[in-house]
Write a structure and sequence with these properties.
By secondary structure, the chain is an all-alpha fold. It contains 3 helices and no strands.
């Protein structure tokens, strides 16, 4: 049984090649625009229950300048 490779040169020529595919994709870009979705509303802290952060982890994150330390 002979297997055919999708990436074989003969198959690429039959399909038009990579450059033609890239051109086809570039022409389709405007058709793929996805409308922006509204960001979900933040959850109030009063609704967050059951989260426990160990003191050592809180100190570690608190000491990171990116997080307010």
């Amino acid at each position: 049984m002979q297997k055919h490779s999708v990436t074989s040169p003969a198959r690429a020529e039959q399909d038009g090649g990579l450059e033609e595919l890239r051109g086809d994709c570039a022409r389709m870009v405007p058709h793929w625009a996805v409308p922006a979705e509204a960001a979900p509303a933040p959850v109030p802290a009063s609704l967050i229950h059951g989260i426990t952060v160990p003191p050592a982890s809180a100190r570690l994150v608190g000491g990171m300048s990116e997080y307010g330390g």
